[in-house]
Structure formats: C-alpha cells, structure tokens
Design goal:
CATH topology of the largest domain: Protein Yojf, Chain: A
Number of helices: 4
CATH architecture of the largest domain: Distorted Sandwich
Radius of gyration: 28 Å
CATH class of the largest domain: Mainly Beta
Structural class: alpha+beta
Order of helices and strands: EHEEEEEEEHEEEHEHE
Length: 252
C-alpha cells in the first residue's frame, strides 16, 4: 500500500498518476478530505462542502461516503471512467458513465489522506440462515412439523400472496405453512390467516389448517393464533457454512 498524508493538490495528483492512473484496473484508490460533489444524470444533486471518504474500486465503481450511515451519499457504477485535474488550487475528480449517461464532479479543497493499494479476493459470499433454509429443512424432512405431512407445493400463488409451503396432513386436510426466519409477529398471523382463507375459498370442504413456523413464537402471538384457530411450530434453523479452509492432503 502507498499513502501520502495531507498532500497538496499537486502532490496528490502526482501520487494518483504514479500509483493509480497507470493501472486503475489493478488498484483501489482512497481519498479522505473536504469535498463538494456535483452530479448530473438521471437527476441533479449538489452536496456542499464536508469531510468525506471517496473510494474508487478496481472495477471502476466510485463511492462517496459521509462520516455516518451505511450507504454512499453519491456513487457511480462499475465501469465508470475517472480523470483528475487541478484548478484554483483544488483537486478535481471527473467521473462519467455512458449507460445511463451521467457524470459526477468532486472538488477537494483540503486533503487529509490519499492511498492506493491492490486487493485480491476471489471468494464467493455464502449466506445461510435465511427463510429458504428453513423451507428446505421442512421439504427435506416434513416430519419435523408432524408425522404424515406431505409437502406438494412451494411458493403456491394465492390471491393475497404466495404460500411458503402447501401440503396435506395424514387425514388429507390441506395445510398452509408460513415460514419466518426470526421472531414470529402479529403481522405473520394475519398473513397466515389470509392465505388460509384464500385456500378455503377454492375448496368445497372448508377445513384448512394453517401453521406458522418460526424459531421463536411469543406468547402474545400464540394467543392470537389460538383465537384464529391456527397453529404454530418453533423450528430452529440449521445454519451451516461450508468450511473451505480445511487443507487437502496434497497441501501437506
């Protein structure tokens, strides 16, 4: 990593030319300083002077972050083209994107830090513990809900939405299952009730069961379920992340 602290605009421009502009696809550039951001494209915006962090990633993505909040306050997508100039003793970044046509200009009147580095990362993000994981658990093993349960449909469309799981119990009674990956809520009960009513409207036999599945069902939610003649199951998620760090025999 190469860094320069409190550089002048000319020193910063020279640093950027030496460590970033010659190979932008291989270096990430970080600039911290007081800047103003002017954007023209699908809309127009002007962000007045403030101390911010600007990142240019190795794929051309440009992000401007304020000291708070997660999302960037201004940004340009992958493949954006950036150029640096000096005017009136200020460092200017001009960024443009062709599709859609838009441009962003950032003026720095005070620079605190400029850094350039190369990051290597070929890993893919693996997400576990989502609702789909619980759904898959139930599909693979319906007996975790009850003996004799048969799942016949996932994401069954009905008038008010899509039922997570639809099946029949051992008495051939339709079963509507709504899955939540976290705490069951009052709105979850109303959602399940509407799905059950949708199924009832399409059947001559009015009996339809509804089961709310979640890791935790509070007492207040259980009471409402009982009042609506609905059921619940507390289903724990099996969160499994594959461990690719284990060494192979050929690595020893």
């Amino acid at each position: 990593m190469h860094t320069v602290i409190h550089p002048s605009p000319s020193d910063a421009l020279q640093f950027i030319k030496q460590h970033h502009s010659s190979k932008p696809e291989k270096t990430m550039l970080l600039i911290i300083g007081e800047c103003m951001v002017d954007y023209h494209g699908r809309a127009k915006s002007l962000l007045d002077w403030g101390e911010r962090l600007l990142l240019i990633k190795q794929d051309g993505t440009v992000l401007v972050h304020q000291p708070i909040m997660r999302e960037p306050v201004n940004w340009q997508p992958t493949g954006s083209i950036t150029e640096f100039t000096i005017k009136d003793n200020q460092l200017f970044l001009n960024c443009r994107n062709r599709k859609p046509p838009e441009k962003m200009k950032v003026a720095f009147r005070q620079l605190m830090l400029v850094a350039a580095t190369t990051l290597i990362d070929h890993a893919n993000l693996i997400i576990a513990g989502m609702e789909v994981d619980v759904v898959n658990q139930i599909v693979d093993n319906p007996t975790m809900i009850e003996e004799g349960l048969r799942i016949v449909k996932r994401e069954k469309p009905v008038k008010t939405g899509a039922i997570d799981l639809y099946g029949f119990d051992k008495e051939h009674i339709p079963v509507v299952i709504e899955v939540k990956r976290s705490l069951a809520t009052i709105s979850s009960v109303h959602q399940l009730r509407m799905y059950v009513n949708d199924i009832k409207k399409d059947r001559t036999e009015p009996k339809v069961r509804g089961i709310l599945c979640a890791p935790k069902v509070p007492d207040m939610v259980k009471k409402l379920l009982e009042e609506q003649r609905l059921e619940w199951r507390e289903v724990k998620r099996n969160v499994v992340i594959p461990d690719n760090r284990q060494r192979k025999l050929t690595e020893f």
